[in-house]
Specification:
With 83 residues, the chain is low in regular secondary structure. The chain is 12% helix and 0% strand.
Length: 83
């Protein structure tokens, strides 16, 4: 059996470069650009802990929901001025 080597371009370089960029982890947080909603910030990636800062750390489309550093607020249910 004789194997012949192929020489030449067998791929579309534009598609290759686009996919390479999508599958690169720029910020090194373990999530590639395709999955990471901000691949230039190591604290923002799918599943990250939300904090009160106006950013969507966990990439779910909601900002500061269930933030770990959110202050507790109490309702004055009886209206006496004390909670």
């Amino acid at each position: 059996m004789l194997l012949l080597p192929f020489v030449g371009c067998l791929f579309n370089s534009e598609v290759y470069e686009r996919r390479k960029a999508e599958l690169t982890d720029v910020d090194g947080d373990g999530f590639v650009m395709e999955d990471d909603c901000d691949d230039h910030d190591t604290s923002i990636f799918p599943g990250a802990v939300e904090v009160c800062d106006g950013a969507d750390q966990d990439c779910d489309g909601e900002i500061d929901e269930e933030a770990s550093d959110a202050p507790w607020w109490y309702v004055d249910a009886d209206g006496d001025g004390h909670v």
